[in-house]
């Protein structure tokens, strides 16, 4: 990609309400599956006096940005959320009913610095460092008024067709969807508040409480964060399940605050066999209180329902194939509570910032790679190849 020549042609003249009217907004754009480009776009205007303009500093690559199971090695289909989710738009151009029909800026896990603010903004000032919550609901529908704004049917979510994402120099957002970072929290950590908020929402859906035993399927970023957040909520024991031994070793070292163990399922074993061994090896008695699936893989779902105690809670956080076999009889006879989890809702981002700021969830320890903005495509390919845990892309530099 001709990033250098494109960058050198960027205007540096300044002026205007955004402060830089003649400067362009360099963006990383997905045109079609596997086809990306750098493009100069207009700097977003502040559509409301409550909006702010943010200069993006760091962006993480999320599952929805980058893959489809048919592109993955067969042994990834039991675990690891980062594989199954991580490269969807980049490789497929769609996730379910969200279909790419025109070029779209990628990215939604971002931190940045406030560049300018609308006339009614009182909580933020230029220079403030923030984590961006990248989905703006309508605020008026029944779901919004009920407090579940993540389920708003009119949600404008970054990097979800038809809305552009945050892999650009500038991004505009309502001020109340920007969370000021404490001085000791780095902007790199700020970019990881978004997936932490996803985990917070999942763990809240599971109603994890002190003394619980929690099993998490999938040791990618979201699964690891679910395990870490569960520990911070007081879980007595957390068991992480994956088919990659190196990720299990990482999980064992990374999770703090709870008795942590890992489990490598047998590739040819049935759900019942894997569940029985999981319970036996981890002294889970009649089963786990909570199971969280962060993989989206059918074998994980079946084993998860099997390993739950009667009356336990199962939360589906990982996105997989649209339809899979489901052990409905076991759900009935065990009277299992089954919940879905989608993005994040009221209070999740605020709590995520607090967990990161307090050192209760070590997001910095998840970062295994950083690249400059001109190497964004390389970062997507790295993630698609299943390398590392979390890759960050630096923002456009002045």
Characterise the protein shown here.
The protein has 398 residues and is of the alpha/beta class. The chain is built from 13 helices and 20 strands. The protein has helices at residues 3-8, 81-85, 88-92, 142-145, 187-191, 193-206, 221-232, 245-254, 271-281, 298-307, 328-333, 348-357, 376-384; strands at residues 25-32, 35-41, 51-60, 94-95, 98-99, 104-105, 109-117, 129-132, 135-136, 156-157, 170-174, 178-180, 213-217, 237-241, 259-263, 288-293, 308-316, 337-340, 367-371, 390-394. The strands form five sheets. Strands 3, 7, 8, 11, 12, 19 and 20 form a seven-stranded mixed β-sheet that branches. A six-stranded parallel β-sheet has the order 15-14-13-16-17-18, with helices on both faces. It is globular. Mean pLDDT is 88; it is low at 1-19 and 67-86.
What is the mean pLDDT? 88
Q: How large, in whole angstroms, is the Cα Rg?
A: 21 Å
Tally of DSSP helical segments = 13
Main sheet overview: 7 strands, mixed
The separation of the N and C termini measures: 20 Å
Helix content: 25-40%
Low-confidence stretches: 1-19, 67-86
Outline type = globular
Percentage of β-strand residues: 25-35%
The strand count comes to 20
Structural class: alpha/beta
Write the layout of secondary structure elements.
Blueprint: H1 3-8, E1 25-32, E2 35-41, E3 51-60, H2 81-85, H3 88-92, E4 94-95, E5 98-99, E6 104-105, E7 109-117, E8 129-132, E9 135-136, H4 142-145, E10 156-157, E11 170-174, E12 178-180, H5 187-191, H6 193-206, E13 213-217, H7 221-232, E14 237-241, H8 245-254, E15 259-263, H9 271-281, E16 288-293, H10 298-307, E17 308-316, H11 328-333, E18 337-340, H12 348-357, E19 367-371, H13 376-384, E20 390-394
Parallel strand pairs: 13-14, 13-16, 14-15, 16-17, 17-18, 19-20
Antiparallel strand pairs: 1-2, 1-6, 3-7, 3-11, 3-20, 4-5, 7-8, 8-12, 9-10
């Amino acid at each position: 990609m001709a990033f250098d020549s494109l960058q050198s042609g960027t205007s540096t003249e300044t002026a205007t309400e955004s402060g830089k009217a003649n400067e362009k907004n360099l963006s990383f754009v997905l045109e079609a599956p596997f086809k990306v480009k750098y493009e100069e776009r207009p700097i977003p205007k502040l559509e409301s006096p409550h909006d702010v303009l943010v200069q993006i500093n760091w962006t993480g690559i999320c599952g929805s940005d980058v893959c489809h199971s048919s592109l993955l090695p067969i042994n990834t289909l039991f675990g690891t959320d980062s594989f199954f989710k991580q490269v969807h738009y980049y490789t497929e151009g769609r996730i379910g009913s969200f279909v790419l029909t025109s070029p779209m800026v990628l990215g939604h896990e971002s931190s940045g610095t406030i560049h300018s603010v609308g006339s009614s903004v009182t909580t933020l000032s230029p220079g403030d460092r923030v984590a961006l919550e990248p989905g703006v609901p309508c605020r008026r529908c029944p779901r919004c008024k009920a407090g579940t704004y993540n389920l708003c049917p009119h949600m404008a979510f970054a990097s979800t067709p038809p809305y552009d994402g945050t892999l650009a120099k500038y991004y505009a957002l309502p001020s109340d969807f920007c969370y000021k970072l404490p001085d000791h929290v780095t902007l790199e950590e700020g970019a990881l508040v978004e997936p932490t908020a996803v985990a917070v929402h999942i763990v809240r859906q599971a109603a994890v409480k002190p003394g619980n035993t929690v099993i998490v399927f999938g040791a990618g970023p979201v699964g690891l964060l679910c395990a870490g957040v569960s520990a911070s909520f007081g879980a007595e024991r957390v068991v992480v399940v994956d088919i990659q031994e190196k990720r299990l070793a990482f999980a064992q070292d990374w999770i703090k605050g709870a008795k942590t163990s890992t489990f490598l399922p047998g590739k040819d074993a049935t759900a019942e066999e894997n569940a029985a061994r999981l319970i036996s090896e981890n002294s889970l008695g009649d089963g786990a209180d909570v199971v969280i699936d962060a993989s989206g893989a059918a074998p994980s779902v079946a084993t998860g329902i099997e390993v739950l105690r009667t009356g336990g809670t199962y939360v589906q956080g990982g996105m997989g194939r649209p339809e899979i076999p489901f052990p409905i009889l076991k759900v009935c006879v065990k009277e299992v509570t089954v919940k879905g989890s989608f993005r994040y809702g009221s209070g999740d981002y605020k709590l995520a910032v607090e967990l990161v700021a307090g050192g209760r969830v070590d997001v910095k320890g998840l970062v295994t790679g950083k690249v400059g903005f001109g190497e964004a495509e390389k970062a997507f390919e790295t993630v698609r190849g299943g390398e590392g845990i979390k890759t960050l892309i630096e923002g456009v530099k002045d």
